[in-house]
Specification:
CATH architecture: Orthogonal Bundle
Number of helices: 15
Distance between the termini: 20 Å
Strand content: under 5%
Radius of gyration: 18 Å
Largest sheet: 2 strands, antiparallel
CATH topology: Farnesyl Diphosphate Synthase
Number of strands: 2
Order of helices and strands: HHHHEEHHHHHHHHHHH
CATH superfamily: Farnesyl Diphosphate Synthase
Length: 298
């Protein structure tokens, strides 16, 4: 088994653990009102790598965190991620018909219910964090603040989406492109890593080091996504390809070309792995996941 095959197998195992936890968190379809719970579960269990959840868990494991706490905190992140995908796919934003190889939520349930399902998943994420057992109130509050900032309008997901939307069809400079990617995707990945560390009682030195690691792999992840939109296939990705070019979105291949984008993503991953040197072999899984971020084909 190659290193890449090995990390894929490990990620699949961890994904199954997260899926089981999500099954416990989200109300069943038999819970009234039935339609909203069907829509929430449809989107959550349509597939997905659960990479943000796993990064959270691995960051906490590196520092000796409690497995049950890390699993619950990590699972809350998938609720937010899926909410963002439901809303991204809506006609007013990306207007996509396919997500994870299945019809998008608004195609399956209608726009109104899709919007509400996204709202419900986002709200449930914060409720979940307030209910994590054996975690002090101060730590819970810090986790909630961390997540809210990663979603927000200063340098979080919403900020990135707004600038991405407003600059579509325009030529953007390198700094604006980096802001879009860092905010739209990178901030949430960085928060996932920080939240795992916080849940494990990280020192400020550990938190700073892992934050810098998250900054680099978060940006590398979005560059890799840009490249997959150009080089990937619909079957492999489970979503529409070449969409960014048609919508004239700001992307790394569009601004820097494919080869330079690949070079920049590789450099970011190399820097990220170097940051983990103080942890020696304990950080091997985080390093492997970082490399997977740019080696993946979906």
């Amino acid at each position: 088994m190659t290193d890449l095959e090995g990390i894929r197998y490990y990620l699949q195992q961890q994904r199954s653990r997260v899926d089981r936890e999500l099954d416990l968190i989200i109300p069943p379809e038999s819970s009234y009102p039935f339609s909203i719970h069907r829509a929430m579960r449809y989107s959550i269990f349509a597939g997905g790598k659960r990479l943000r959840s796993i990064l959270c868990m691995e960051s906490g494991r590196l520092l000796g965190g409690d497995e049950a706490i890390l699993l619950r905190v990590g699972s809350s992140l998938e609720l937010v991620h899926t909410y963002s995908l439901i809303h991204d796919d809506l006609p007013a934003l990306d207007n996509d018909d396919l997500r994870r190889g299945k019809p998008t939520a608004h195609r399956a349930f209608g726009e109104a219910l899709a919007i509400l399902a996204g709202d419900a998943l986002l709200t449930l994420a914060f409720e979940t964090l307030t209910d994590v057992e054996h975690l002090g109130a101060e730590c819970r509050l810090r986790l909630i603040r961390e997540l809210a900032r990663a979603i927000g309008t200063r340098a979080g997901m919403v900020a990135g989406q707004v600038v991405d939307l407003e600059t579509a069809g325009e030529g953007v400079d390198a700094a604006t492109l980096e802001f879009i990617h860092t905010a739209k995707t990178g901030a949430f990945i960085r928060a996932a890593i920080r939240m795992g560390a916080l849940a494990a009682g990280a020192s400020e030195d550990d938190l700073d080091r892992l934050s810098a690691f998250g900054d680099r792999i978060g940006l590398a992840f979005q560059i890799a996504d840009d490249l997959l939109d150009v080089l990937g296939t619909q079957n492999a990705l489970g979503k529409t390809v070449h969409k960014d070019g048609r919508q004239k979105k700001a992307t790394y291949p569009g601004r820097h070309g494919v080869e330079e984008s690949e070079r920049q993503a590789g450099r970011l991953i190399a820097e990220a792995c170097e940051l983990l040197e103080p942890y020696a072999a304990r950080a091997n899984r985080l390093r492997a996941i970082a490399r997977y971020v740019v080696a993946r084909t979906s």
